[in-house]
């Protein structure tokens, strides 16, 4: 009995350590702005392979954030999306999916529609910068995939986002 409990405790601890390290990297590198390196023009940081999801997250930023009940792109969001457009112009063989996300407030239907407007706003901005619309798909997750759990303004702000994901 003690041995089983010890093994279970060790496994949970190991999973928690792995999860924690990965979440810190995502938060530091992909949360809207830029990561460590320049990323655009073939320069990358660390051991990241150019043209990968990790490259986008670490060197450009894979997400932007929205105000409550809004799909309007802020100046910070536009700056991140301009860097994403440059990155996509460098990596012409890649296609992306833009995910629209919302916070937990509101109905499922309302948030799915708002998430779609957010994803479409991101796609429209990227296409206005010269990225062909055929390289960008959109999907709305509404409030179904929160980045942060909780009913606080801080959690809600992190969940109101658009995330650009490199298609496999």
Notable features of this structure?
single chain; 168 residues; 4 strands; four-stranded mixed beta sheet; 60s Ribosomal Protein L30, Chain: A; alpha+beta; 2 domains; 13% strand
Description:
The chain is an alpha+beta fold. It has two domains: 1-29; 31-166, 2-Layer Sandwich (60s Ribosomal Protein L30, Chain: A), CATH 3.30.1330. 48% of the residues lie in helices and 13% in strands. The protein contains five helices and four strands. Helix 4 (108-128) links the parallel strand 2 (96-101) and strand 3. The radius of gyration is 18 Å and the shape is globular.
In the CATH scheme, what's the topology name of the largest domain?
60s Ribosomal Protein L30, Chain: A
Strand order of the largest sheet: 1-4-2-3
Helix content: 40-55%
**Rg of Cα set:** 18 Å
Choose one word for the global shape. globular
- Helix/strand order, N-terminal first: HHEHEHEHE
CATH architectural name of the largest domain: 2-Layer Sandwich
Domains (count): 2
Please state the average pLDDT score: 82
User: What do we call the CATH homologous superfamily of the largest domain?
Assistant: OmpA-like domain
Largest sheet: 4 strands, mixed
Low-confidence stretches: 1-42
Taking the alpha carbons of the first and last residues, their distance comes to 44 Å
Q: Specify the structural class.
A: alpha+beta
**Total of DSSP H or I helical runs spanning 4+ residues:** 5
Annotation, overall tally of beta strands: 4
CATH uppermost class of the largest domain: Alpha Beta
């Amino acid at each position: 009995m003690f041995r089983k409990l010890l093994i279970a405790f060790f496994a949970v601890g190991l999973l928690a350590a792995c999860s924690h390290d990965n979440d810190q990297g995502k938060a530091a590198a992909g949360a809207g702005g830029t990561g460590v390196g320049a990323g655009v023009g073939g320069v990358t940081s660390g051991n990241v392979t150019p043209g990968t999801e990790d490259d986008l997250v670490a060197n450009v930023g894979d997400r932007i954030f929205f105000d409550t009940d809004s799909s309007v792109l802020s100046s910070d969001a536009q700056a991140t999306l301009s860097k994403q457009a440059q990155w996509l112009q460098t990596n012409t063989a890649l296609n992306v999916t833009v995910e629209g996300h919302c916070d937990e407030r509101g109905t499922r239907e309302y948030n799915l529609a708002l998430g779609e407007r957010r994803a479409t706003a991101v796609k429209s901005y990227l296409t206005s910068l010269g990225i062909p619309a055929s390289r960008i798909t959109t999907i709305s997750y509404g409030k179904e995939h929160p980045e942060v759990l909780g009913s606080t303004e801080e959690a809600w702000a992190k969940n109101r986002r658009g995330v650009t994901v490199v298609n496999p």
